[in-house]
Write a structure and sequence with these properties.
Radius of gyration: 19 Å
CATH architecture: Alpha-Beta Complex
CATH superfamily: Nucleoside Triphosphate Pyrophosphohydrolase
Number of helices: 6
Largest sheet: 5 strands, mixed
CATH topology: Nucleoside Triphosphate Pyrophosphohydrolase
Distance between the termini: 31 Å
């Protein structure tokens, strides 16, 4: 029996370092990864290269009228976010987002376009490709990674941690792919959220070091 379609009602390290230097210089007159002698500090550069490797994907799935977007509520950190996750070894970003959405929502999707390439400014986040996707088949399913799946009106979204509000805004504009630094994911925002949402922030930090607490 065919499955029911869901109802939407409600290279080289040196070359890489050169790219990173160019990216940094575009935003300021001095490259912060250069030592006082003007040479690149190799230990810093290798860390930056590692941090800026593409490691994560996220998916924006809109309703047919583009008035609503699909969000999931995570189990490890119980907040509403876009579906997505890490890229497996030898896996393309496009394959990764299709797999992650299926694992987290039960929906089989196709990739429609690349929304943006998002570069971290610290170790609180990972370089991420955001894709807009559309549902081909499936039904919403609560999984071991999610405790909620729901379409929300673009005009009435639940509280979202950074950088998800920026990502949803970019996806909704339907423009050519952007390349941005994730300035909203900062240590300042982490401290602010630690004051107002201490349990969520602690669970987020634990998940970053591989210790997850899955909520029922």
């Amino acid at each position: 029996m065919p499955r029911r379609r869901p109802d939407f009602g409600s290279g080289a390290a040196g070359a890489e370092a050169a790219k990173l230097k160019k990216f940094s210089d575009a935003g300021g007159s001095q490259n912060p990864w250069l030592s006082d002698t003007g040479r690149t500090d190799s230990s810093i550069t290798s860390g930056i290269i590692c941090m800026n490797d593409l490691k994560s994907v996220a998916g924006a799935i809109f309703s047919p009228d583009r008035k609503s977007i699909l969000l999931i509520k995570r189990r490890d950190v119980p907040v509403w976010v876009l579906p997505g996750g890490g890229i497996d070894p030898n896996e393309s970003a496009e394959t990764a987002i299709v797999r992650e959405i299926l694992e987290e929502t039960g929906f089989t999707v196709k990739v429609d376009r690349l929304v943006g390439d998002y570069i971290p400014i610290n170790r609180l986040s990972k370089r991420t490709h955001l894709f807009e996707c559309s549902i081909l088949d499936g039904e919403p399913q609560i999984t071991s990674e999610t405790r909620g799946i729901q379409f929300f009106s673009i005009k009435n979204l639940p509280p979202l941690p950074p950088p998800y509000p920026d990502w949803i805004s970019d996806a909704n504009q339907n423009l050519p792919p952007v390349k941005k630094r994730m300035i909203s994911v900062s240590y300042f925002s982490l401290i602010k959220n630690l004051i107002f949402h201490p349990i969520l922030v602690i669970r987020f930090l634990l998940s970053r070091i591989g210790f997850t607490i899955n909520s029922k």
